[in-house]
Specification:
With about 110 residues, this protein is α+β, with helices and mostly antiparallel strands. It has 3 helices and 6 strands, in the order αββββββαα. About 15% of the residues are buried.
Length: about 110
């Protein structure tokens, strides 16, 4: 299925890439969804001189850092895809949390 382009995401990506904003954070119903940073960012460091952008895809129990060197449309496509799947990620994380707190899950059975 083709996911519809989100032009608002494209505008945000262009603004971060052109140093209009140092970063942008997005959440869905109070839960972090994604963050975009100019440069190469990791948990421990942030090199703002790097020409790439770092997209942090958040889930309720984890985050994935992706450093991209592509045009703004492709970065916006990554974001839109993550937003499209965000509710299923939340459901998966909820089920995983329920399993890990169950009698079977806490013992790795």
């Amino acid at each position: 299925m083709q996911i519809k382009r989100n032009t608002m995401n494209e505008i945000i990506v262009k603004d971060v890439m052109n140093n209009k904003f140092p970063a942008y954070h997005n959440n869905k119903n109070g839960i972090d969804c994604w963050s975009l940073y100019k440069g190469n960012k990791s948990i421990y460091s942030h090199d703002e001189t790097d020409p790439r952008v770092t997209l942090v895809l958040h889930r309720p129990h984890s985050s994935t850092y992706v450093t991209l060197s592509c045009d703004y449309k492709e970065v916006a496509e990554y974001i839109t895809n993550h937003e499209y799947n965000f509710e299923s990620f939340k459901d998966q994380d909820k089920k995983l949390g329920e399993y890990l707190t169950s009698d079977e899950g806490k013992w790795g059975i």
